[in-house]
Amino acid sequence: MRNYFPNVEWKEEGSIEAGLTLIPTTAFFLLVLQLVITGSLKTVETMKLQSWLNKSALYAVDGELSSRIITSDLPGGGELLFVNGESNAPSLATTGRGFTADAAPTVSYEAIAVRE
After folding, report:
1. Residues 115, 79: Cα–Cα separation, whole Å
2. Which of 24, 53, 81, 82 is the most exposed place for a label (fewest CB within 10 A)?
3. Would 75 be classed as within a structural domain?
4. Which residue range(s) make up the domain with 103?
5. Its pTM surpasses 0.85
6. Beta strands in the chain (DSSP E)
7. 21, part of any domain
8. What tens digit of pLDDT does each residue of 17-64 get?
């Protein structure tokens, strides 16, 4: 390597212990990033499902989720609508799951609405 700064002495000494701290730090970063992505996915999917269920309660919208709606009659009239869903979360690393694709982490979400 060419020394472009002749008056500066570069010291590239370090211990192996300092280098080994990168492994748990990287694993922790990937784990936290996985949790943030999974939490964000659950929030977005819940909002979409709740929006669809609200439209279904107001305007009797049909769709692919119509067959999964669980209804319960309310004492004063109307009905309680409940629907749940599940999707696969994107995986950044194999942390916390097996090395097979069938063990992919899933996110479940629910929505509830009242139809009068």
Report:
1. 5
2. 24
3. yes
4. 16-115
5. no
6. 70-73, 79-88, 106-115
7. yes
8. 777 888 888 888 988 888 898 899 899 999 998 998 888 888 877 666
